[in-house]
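Fill in residues.
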């Protein structure tokens, strides 16, 4: 016997074009598709099984599979016409509209077929939205791209044509879902894939997780009925965990995130405007409460023990670790510091709040009279200190180097001081808590105290 591999997590297609470099004319275009059918089914399952009964029966009916293949081919056709991948207006659609039949009929749930948004994961069963409206379709950003690239401006001088093209670009000032976030500009919710495109990631995540929890509850009946093995059960379980990571990272993107509005030299205002501190604190509180509690709804021995004898601890630790690493990335911390600096010379304490609240949430057991820390929480606490140690040691390695002076990834002294103070407070709290801890927790706390002393010294 052997363990079958999970269906590839990657797949898609490619377009090759032959272009006349003298005129820019596309002479020929070929579209090649290599996405496994199983991958398309998995992606639809994660987004739609909570409200579309067709997604709960494998293999899917031909009509549904035809729709999913059409989505993929439309995306690749966009490439053949010269449109780039993803990140069109991903933080622009109004949250309250993406479950509206009227809006979805006209605008879709994502501004572009080129975005990696797939299906609408926010729809609830009670919404009674027709299934065809949860599919990704050619959107307003695609029409905008084609207009700019292919409009025929007859009898216009070069200067007049340039002004006309500029007016098309400036439509993004009025309709932000037309804006394309280029590679280095994804400093916020403009660069998140596989999540619902709208302007409220926290509210969006709440709905998405509600659906994921419902899907997890349905999973044994869906994946085991009339099956000869546990293969479908296994890889769909991990798809749910993967989607949870993406939802949490989507909320993380608000923290230290920016609004984006490109400007030419004559336009007033900023290209990068920080998301309000109120919204950032809201996102931080949500992540702390949702991502770093032990997710009992994912710990399903009736599922996982059908394909592995162990793994729940590793699985949960791994997904929380990925969200924590994303939250504590040096790029994000540097953006937070930049944003906190700027208000009338008064430093906003958001970085202090970040580390203080992380300590409070991840080490909340230390507030109890009798301290007992579960295995899952011990793993999270160990991961937290490992990330802090990584940030500290890497920054020390950069001291004196050119990257320390010029690089985006190094820490200012301000951040080092905040982290140091918070870790000192945490070490003292752990030291005072060891005697109140049970036998399963005391050794862990002693080990964590030693790690903290290593970091601080």
């Amino acid at each position: 016997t052997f363990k079958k591999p999970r269906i590839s997590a990657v797949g898609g297609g490619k377009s090759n074009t032959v272009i006349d470099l003298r005129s820019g004319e596309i002479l020929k275009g070929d579209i090649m598709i290599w996405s496994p059918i199983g991958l398309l089914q998995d992606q639809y399952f994660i987004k739609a099984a909570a409200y579309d009964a067709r997604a709960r029966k494998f293999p899917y009916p031909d009509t549904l599979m035809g729709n999913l293949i059409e989505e993929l081919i439309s995306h690749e056709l966009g490439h053949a016409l010269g449109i780039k991948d993803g990140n069109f207006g991903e933080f622009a659609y109004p949250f309250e509209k993406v479950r509206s039949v009227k809006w979805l009929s006209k605008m879709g749930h994502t501004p572009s077929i080129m975005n990696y948004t797939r299906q609408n994961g926010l729809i609830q069963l009670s919404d009674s939205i027709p299934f065809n409206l949860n599919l990704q379709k050619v959107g307003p950003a695609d029409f905008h791209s084609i207009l700019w690239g292919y409009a025929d401006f007859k009898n216009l001088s070069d200067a007049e044509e340039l002004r006309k093209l500029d007016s098309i670009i400036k439509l993004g000032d009025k309709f932000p879902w037309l804006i394309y976030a280029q590679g280095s500009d994804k400093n916020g919710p403009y660069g998140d894939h596989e999540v619902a495109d709208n302007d409220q990631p926290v509210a969006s995540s709440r709905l998405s997780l509600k659906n994921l929890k419902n899907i997890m509850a349905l999973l044994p009946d869906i994946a085991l009925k009339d099956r000869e093995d546990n293969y479908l059960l296994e890889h769909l379980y991990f798809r749910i965990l993967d989607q949870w990571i993406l939802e949490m990272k989507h909320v993380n993107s608000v923290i230290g995130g920016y609004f984006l509005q490109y400007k030419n030299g004559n336009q007033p205002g900023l290209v990068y405007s920080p998301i309000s501190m109120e919204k950032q604190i809201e996102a931080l509180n949500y992540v702390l409460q949702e991502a770093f509690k032990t997710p009992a709804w994912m710990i399903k021995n009736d599922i996982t023990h059908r394909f592995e004898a162990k793994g729940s601890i590793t699985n949960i630790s791994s997904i929380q670790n990925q969200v924590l690493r994303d939250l504590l990335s040096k790029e994000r911390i540097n953006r937070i510091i930049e944003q906190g600096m700027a208000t009338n010379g008064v430093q906003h304490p958001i970085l202090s709040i970040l580390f203080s609240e992380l300590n409070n949430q991840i080490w909340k057991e230390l507030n109890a009279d009798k301290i007992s820390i579960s295995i899952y929480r011990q793993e999270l606490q160990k991961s937290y200190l490992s990330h802090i140690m990584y940030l500290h040691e890497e920054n020390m390695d950069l001291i004196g180097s050119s990257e320390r002076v010029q690089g985006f990834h190094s820490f200012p002294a301000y951040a080092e001081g905040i982290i140091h103070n918070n870790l000192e407070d945490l070490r003292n709290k752990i030291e005072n808590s060891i005697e109140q801890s049970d036998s399963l927790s005391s050794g862990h706390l002693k080990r964590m105290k030693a790690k903290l002393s290593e970091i601080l010294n």
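DSSP finds 17 helices and four strands in the chain.
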